[in-house]
From TrEMBL:
Organism: Muribaculum intestinale
Lineage, uppermost ranks: Bacteria, Pseudomonadati, Bacteroidota, Bacteroidia, Bacteroidales
Compartment(s): Cell inner membrane; Cell membrane
Binding residue positions for GTP: 10-17, 35-39, 56-59, 116-119
Family: Belongs to the TRAFAC class TrmE-Era-EngA-EngB-Septin-like GTPase superfamily. FeoB GTPase (TC 9.A.8) family.
Record function comment: Probable transporter of a GTP-driven Fe(2+) uptake system.
Protein name: Ferrous iron transport protein B
């Protein structure tokens, strides 16, 4: 039997464990609690002629290196290389949830977005053109309700299509980080690509952005190369120039460009109920 390894990645309380339980028949604890242990729960199930190995990863808001959860998820993605990342997001809280999505897109991993708690979005009266939003970011989005299992077959079918290379919406759209940052990303990225000693587990773009953000773990990855001094000097020159020109911190600019992109994409695709009411009165 063919196997697809999938990993659930998303913010805390977006419904990952509910999805994991319903898909794999496990009975992991669901709800508002912060676990004391940071680990991955593994399960499996059969669907559509495949064996799915599924992993429920700790909840995380970002793929930086500031919390044990972030580090755990990032190391998992690096070491285990799941075939498909299932990014679980809360449909009615995309402003916040899609930040992590932009980081996964930077990583260039095959992925599908589970637009979870879609029931809550519908009850609120809001509407989301998720097909258009999926096209804007280049990742297929599937509405799900992991509490009941609604939408999960559609999710698994989409995962299979992405795995088999048959899904149309799979050309990731990297968030353009603007004229101050992009040239530096390109320079650092090209230097990373040209260095055979730097592993390919993370995409050069992701590594470049994280280096510009002074991510200590990515610095450690880069330091495995005998040529790392030149690369880190290039990074320092880029950062210094950006900060001199903008008077702003590089990480802050990157975050604000990403949130700006998300806001813009949602402005075109998400209509909340209060705005709808305002239009009709
Ligand atoms: P995790 O932290 O991402 O693993 O999230 P959980 O699976 O523990 O779910 C957090 C809470 O959201 C629980 O109370 C779930 O019952 C609830 N929940 C999960 N999925 C859905 C959904 O699709 N709709 C609704 N309304 N609630 C959900
Ligand atoms: K939880
Ligand atoms: Mg959980």
């Amino acid at each position: 039997q063919r196997t697809i390894n999938i990993a659930l990645v998303g913010n805390p309380n977006c419904g990952k464990t509910s999805l994991f339980n319903i898909a794999s028949g496990a009975k992991e604890h669901v709800g508002n609690y912060s676990g004391v242990t940071v680990d991955a729960k593994r399960g499996h199930f059969s669907y559509g002629g495949y064996r799915f190995n599924i992993v429920d990863l700790p909840g995380t808001y970002s793929l930086a290196c500031y919390s044990p959860e972030e580090l755990y998820v990032r190391r998992y993605l690096r070491d285990e290389m799941p075939d498909i990342v299932v990014n679980v997001v809360v449909a009615s809280n995309l402003e916040r949830n899609l930040y992590l999505t932009t980081e996964l897109i930077d990583m260039d991993r095959s992925m599908v977005i589970a637009l979870n708690m879609y029931d809550e979005l519908e009850h609120s009266g809001a509407t989301l053109d998720y097909r258009m939003l999926g096209e804007m970011i280049g990742v297929p989005m599937v509405p799900t309700v992991s509490r009941t299992g609604e939408g999960l077959h559609n999710l698994f079918d989409t995962i299979i299509r992405v795995y088999e290379g048959k899904e149309q919406v799979v050309r990731h759209v990297h968030v353009n980080l603007g004229p101050e940052i992009e040239p530096s990303v390109t320079m650092v990225k090209d230097a990373i690509k040209a260095d055979p000693a730097i592993g390919v587990h993370f995409s050069p773009r992701y590594l470049a952005i994280k280096l510009l953000e002074h991510d200590s773990e990515v610095e450690a990855i880069v330091k495995e190369s005998p040529d790392h001094k030149k690369l880190l000097e290039l990074r320092d020159r880029c950062d210094a120039l950006i900060e001199k020109r903008t008077g702003d911190d590089v990480s802050a600019i990157i975050a604000s460009e990403k949130y700006g992109f998300i806001d813009g994409a949602l402005a075109e695709t998400f209509v909340d109920s209060t705005k709808e009411k305002a239009k009709t009165t």
